[in-house]
Amino acid sequence: MSIDLVTAAGVTVPATQLAREATELIRDTTDELIYHHSRRVYFFGSLQGRERDLGFDAELLYLGAMFHDVGLNQEFHDSGRRFEVDSADEARRFLQSHGVPEDSVRRVWTSIALHTTPGIPQFMEPEVALVTAGVEYDVLGIGYDSLSAEERDAVVALHPRPDFKRRILDAFTDGIRSKPDTTFGNVKADVLEHFVPGFERGDFVRTIQDSAWKE
To answer: Where does the HD domain start and stop, copy by copy (predicted)?
Structure first.
């Protein structure tokens, strides 16, 4: 499949050299589950931006979408950091190596780092808001009916999602099971609680009560 001028539901993948190289990198370093999911996040995020009448930089949205899950890769399993931060740091390294301006790097980094932190990205720059919107649409089905069946079908025809619910949960579990402490206070604790026997999620209240402070 060509990676130039790919269009679905009226949304076109940026045909810049930077986007092409990012696409090739993600195709080479992730499996087809993450690759297709990441591309759908771009399409669904763009469509959500159109629905919300948001102006956004399509290239920056694409880069955020493509890198947002690379932190689930094997090489990051022992990093000790949240996978979102590993993903964001990889995007930053890639963008800085291509001389991308620091404000653009910051937007992409933030869009990735916050994509599993609901309630905050929607109030930030459009690219930050729309990476999260694309993730929430594809993974959680949030706002499902805000897009038409024709739009959904066009995107899924280009980037299929066979058995996606089970497979993405497996990918989340594999990506974070070796660093359970990074799930404290975020949604990935739910994943380990469901799929890793013996996992005990952090308790915010107990952390306060058991701290070294006397009162």
So the answer is: 35-121
